Amino acid sequence: MTIQDFDIQVATAQNIDYAEQICYEMAESAKARGTGIAQRSPEYIAEKMLEGKAVIALHKDGTWAGFCYIETWSHGDFVANSGLIVNPIYRKVGLAKAIKHKIFELSRSKYPEAKLFGLTTGLAVMKINSELGYEPVTYSELTQDEQFWAGCKSCVNFDILTMKERKNCMCTAMLFDPAEKAKDIEEKTKQMSRKATLFERIESAIKSFGQDIKVF
After folding, report:
1. What percent of the chain has pLDDT over 70?
2. 7, β-bridge pairs
3. d(CA 76, CA 96)
4. 46, 67, 100, 196: least surrounded by Cβ within 10 Å?
């Protein structure tokens, strides 16, 4: 079995029947990890599908294989790719990475100026996020939308979050800031330009030196 056996697409109304199974697997996965995620109802998952704010992976035989959805906070200034889940029977084939890349592209397309962030305890997810350009940050750099943090109440570690006054918890906070990325690209472009100018000067000096030798 390879990643080519799956169709990873933006979810639609045709995928609503999978919502209940997706919610079940999300809850079971959280239990297995000993950590929690904001619990979502099948109705909520179905709504994300109808809004075009979710990505679903299906095996070529039509079986549900994976899922992830978009949430917006602070009036759209922050976007989270939430609820990443892979059907247990299809793990270890690279689906999580493929789904994350697809939902990242969808998020950037829908909200090009928004900051993308995530809270996770999974090392694999952290690695994928890093590949996409996310960087570890403090909780203070995330959305301060109370509705987002209220979603943590269903997590088994919510008491820790509260005790630490929402400054940190068991999850690692990661952020993709498009404005900062644009600055980085601009700075790299300037550096390349300066290097090109330097090389041109060196090349010119070498040519000039060669001509001086010939004249001599």
Report:
1. 90
2. 58
3. 25
4. 196
Could you tell me whether strands 135-136 and 115-120 are parallel, antiparallel, or unpaired per DSSP bridges? unpaired
* Model confidence, pTM: 0.80
Q: Dihedral sign, CA of 201, 205, 206, 208?
A: positive
Residue 188 belongs to a domain: no
Examine residue 113 and state whether it is found in any structural domain, yes or no.
Answer: yes
Residue that wins the pLDDT comparison between 31 and 85? 85
Q: Total structural domains in the chain? A: 1
Which range (42-46, 72-76, 207-211) has the least confidence? Answer: 207-211
Which CATH number covers residue 129? 3.40.630.30
Which tens digit of pLDDT belongs to each residue from 141-160?
999 999 999 888 878 888 99
**Is the distance from CB of 8 to CB of 104 less than 8 angstroms?**
no
Which of 26-35, 57-66, 159-168, 188-197: highest mean pLDDT? 57-66
How far is residue 210's CA from residue 41's CA, in Å, rounded to a whole number? Answer: 76
Q: Which helix (H) or strand (E) holds 116?
A: strand 115-120
72, two tokens: 């917006």
What range defines the domain where residue 7 resides?
A: 3-176
Contact 121, 33 (CB under 8 A): yes
Token code pair at residue 68: 């992830």
The DSSP code for 151 is: G
